[in-house]
Specification:
By secondary structure, this protein is mainly α. The protein is 75% helix and 1% strand. It has a two-stranded antiparallel ribbon with strand order 1-2.
């Protein structure tokens, strides 16, 4: 249960990964007036935001003009992918701008986090710390996303080495660069704008979900602790004061967790709903685009990117499922533990826990769509059906 260096993790260790992830684009959800970001980081973040606005403006301009798109199915699919991904990323970025709500929720969970060594052992802190597969997923996601941006430059370098000419390929189709007429600095400006634009989208997409997962991990850890504590505790009529203190603490903690889960739903609910819808759209368009392009360097990077994006959706749905399962299990633990010798007040408190656990804590999108593994299955099913329909229409 101990970490590799023999120490137990603190709450700040749990938040370090999503914090570092967002700082890759110069943003920090926990940034306050007393602990501001460095000036260079703020400037870098605003460079990403301005580049993103500029690129999105050009994207919609090309879509409205339609001159550069025409009836090119491959290009249409690529624009559809970009539009859905922009909507998805901007929604998550907008969610991250609720900094006061983030900080309040983070402060409550930090206060609830066990402080003593024995309490950390009882809560199984280290078992809930970021597992290695999630770290690998984060690295692969950022790596595949970077390859989508760097790939055109590598392609240009390869063509130069093979054919002694530089092709000036860049990431997105909405910037038109003609090496015969346009100065060289425009190419580097375009590539810089596209890089910063991609940085904001990719990091917003990943980091907001990492914060969500971090919060849900905390909820899961505390729910698991409540269930195990109830299951293993044996009240006695001779320990009335101790028993009442024990059960009242669990009742209060259970109430706090239900309220904290509602806070999570309030913060992330809107982005979750739109994210599930747009993610399905991204999967469809990327799959069609990759099939049309074939498995070249661009196609391979898109496939890897799509697989990691799918894993990210699965991760959110998995923890949504786990919260619901552990919350439901509290009722079973309360009913099944040996409370026959407990005093009347203790039994009444047990009934309160059982009654409240009948409506389990759950991660929801806009309050009505439960986010679970069934949701993931439905998204993947709809995605495949739409992909098959689009492919049939093209053929």
């Amino acid at each position: 249960m101990e970490s590799e260096n023999g120490l137990f993790y603190n709450y700040e260790d749990f938040t370090r990964i999503p914090t570092i992830s967002y700082r890759l684009c110069g943003f920090d959800v926990l940034d306050t007036a007393s602990k501001p970001r460095p000036i260079w980081m703020k400037l870098y973040h605003w460079a990403c935001v301005c580049s993103h606005i500029c690129c999105v403006w050009f994207m919609f301009r090309r879509i409205i003009e339609r001159d550069t798109i025409g009836n090119n199915i491959s290009l249409i699919m690529r624009y559809a992918t970009l539009v859905t991904y922009v909507v998805n990323s901007d929604t998550k970025y907008g969610t991250s701008q609720q900094k006061h709500a983030f900080q309040r929720l983070n402060g409550k969970l930090a206060e609830l986090f066990p402080k003593s060594k024995q309490s950390k052992i009882d809560h199984r802190i280290n078992e809930y710390f970021w597992p290695r597969p999630i770290i690998v997923l984060i690295v692969v996601y950022y790596g595949s996303s970077a390859m989508v941006v760097v790939g055109p430059l590598l392609q240009s370098v390869y063509i130069y080495l093979m054919e002694q000419r530089f092709s000036y390929v860049h990431c997105y189709p909405y910037y038109i660069f003609d090496p015969e007429q346009d100065p060289l600095w425009q190419y580097f400006l375009i590539y810089t704008l596209e890089w910063l634009h991609s940085t904001l989208m990719v990091i917003s997409n990943m980091s907001t979900d990492l914060w969500l997962v971090n919060f849900e991990v905390q909820i899961c850890m505390h729910l698991d602790y409540i269930a195990r504590s109830l299951e293993n505790y044996k009240p006695s009529s001779t320990r009335d004061s101790k028993d009442r203190k024990f059960i009242s603490q669990l009742v209060n903690k259970h109430n706090n967790l239900l309220e904290l889960q509602e806070d999570i739903n309030d913060i992330f609910g809107g982005s979750l709903l739109l994210s599930l819808l747009t993610t399905a759209g991204v999967f469809c368009t990327v799959a069609v685009y990759t099939q049309l392009q074939g498995l070249n360097l661009e196609g391979i990077t898109y496939v890897v990117f799509m697989l990691t994006a799918t894993s990210l959706v699965y991760l959110v749905c998995y923890y949504g499922e786990k919260v619901k399962t552990l919350s439901t299990y509290i009722a079973h633990a309360a009913y099944n533990h040996n409370w026959s010798d407990a005093p009347p007040d203790y039994k009444r408190s047990i009934m309160i826990i059982i009654a409240r656990a009948q409506k389990p804590a759950e991660l929801t999108a806009m309050g009505y769509l439960s986010v679970s593994l069934d949701t993931f299955k439905q998204v993947m099913t709809v995605t495949y059906r739409v992909f098959a329909l689009i492919r049939q229409m093209i053929e």
